[in-house]
Amino acid sequence: MIEPRTSIHANPPATVETEIAALGRWFHNLHLPGGTQTAPDHPLGDFPAYKWKHLSAHIPQDLTGWSVLDIGCNAGFYSFELAKRGARVTAIDSDPHYLAQAKWAAKQYDLEGRITFRKMQVYDLARVKETFDLVLFMGVFYHLRYPMLALDLVVQRVSRMMVFQTLTLPGKEVVEDTDGLDFNNRQRMLEPGWPKMAFIERAFAGDPTNWWVPNHACVEAMLRASGMQVMKALGHEMYLCAPDPDHPSVVHTWNADELLSATGTNRHRGRL
Ligand SMILES: C[S@@+](CC[C@H](N)C(=O)[O-])C[C@H]1O[C@@H](n2cnc3c(N)ncnc32)[C@H](O)[C@@H]1O
Question: Domain range spanning residue 146?
């Protein structure tokens, strides 16, 4: 019997380029070991490498022995940079499309052994007990309908440092004294530096998953209220933070019940 001839074009061998195309669309422009990039025409430029330039020097070069949690890891850019410095990384994202990219890219960098990927919502951290030396909570906050709930959950997983990044409103003004207004005096809340967030009912920049955009004062106030101290506001809407033992979150003082109920982790198991 004569075997049908297989065209040499029937199953061309997968190249890095064809695999990148099959895994698209990419949000992270990864520079892969062979020099190929995953999103060289990114509308934001070489993203997020240009952001990393502002952050890189503030994170220890040697992360041997450090544990890292990368929340909303996307295709894994930051996880890879931190794993290259020796950290053991847990990378979570709610979107399987991005996790598939990240798992594939981890193989290209030969970093699979250092990074654990999990499909998880940030709110699932309510059931995680482990803490991490470094937590990255970057580019996720404004995508959340329940942002303060998420922040309260995230900071409880931080043992040393957190990097927080969000889309923000224009302006750097800060009204520091927000205490003690009386009921009929709300005019001051309209001042530019009063902590506030804009709510997006529909889409922003064509993306219906954007919900809240805080101003700079609000970011700092929310971080403080969640028990963090802002060590440094870095460029590009990034904040380097550490737990503030002198000002713990109200979650640890008078308001734990609200968080437990909001996350379904209280003792009332649906019985009235
Ligand atoms: C704008 S990208 C930011 C990616 C990366 N952290 C960065 O800063 O470049 C937002 C990422 O967060 C993920 N994400 C959105 N909502 C999430 C949620 N509720 N829990 C976990 N990940 C979420 C998205 O799938 C996406 O990968």
Answer: 121-172+187-262
